[in-house]
Amino acid sequence: MEQVLLNPGKLARTAVDVASDKKASDVVLLDLQGLSSIADYFVICSGSNERQIQAIADALEEELEKQGASLLHQEGDATSGWVLLDFGAVIVHIFGPREREYYRLERLWSEAKTVVYLQ
């Protein structure tokens, strides 16, 4: 089978669309190119409760794999209030409201360019 090279920017935007379709709030796409060796893009979003956080994570994994991406690693789960999905060049963070406020990833990566912000 021929390997398809995925465009990380397109993959990140797909992640934003999927999170938005699942009613995630405060969806942010940060461009980390040139700032980090761990990823090119972070997608950060919030779910209002455990069920929604899990639904967002499941939908992201399903849709991004349809696009040809592989989930390399997952950290956390909905009960912890923070799920991290690592698709290589794109890392998705799904937070509960309290965890989002506590970790403040947007502040930590304040030098990154905000590509998309959906409230």
TrEMBL record:
**Entry's InterPro entries?**
Iojap/RsfS/C7orf30 (IPR004394), NT_sf (IPR043519)
Q: Which residues cross the membrane?
A: none
Q: Which GO terms describe its molecular function?
A: ribosomal large subunit binding
Annotated localization: Cytoplasm
Q: Gene3D superfamilies attached here? A: Beta Polymerase, domain 2
GO:BP terms for this protein? Answer: cytosolic ribosome assembly; negative regulation of ribosome biogenesis; negative regulation of translation
Q: Which GO terms describe its cellular component?
A: cytoplasm
Coiled-coil regions listed in the entry: none
| Record key words, sorted | Cytoplasm, Repressor, Translation regulation
Q: Name one Pfam family in it.
A: RsfS
- How is the subunit organization of this protein annotated in UniProt? Interacts with ribosomal protein uL14 (rplN).
> What is stated as this protein's family in its record?
Belongs to the Iojap/RsfS family.
Role, per record: Functions as a ribosomal silencing factor. Interacts with ribosomal protein uL14 (rplN), blocking formation of intersubunit bridge B8. Prevents association of the 30S and 50S ribosomal subunits and the formation of functional ribosomes, thus repressing translation.
Supply the name of the protein.
Ribosomal silencing factor RsfS
Organism, scientific name: Thermogemmatispora aurantia
**Could you tell me the gene encoding this protein?**
rsfS
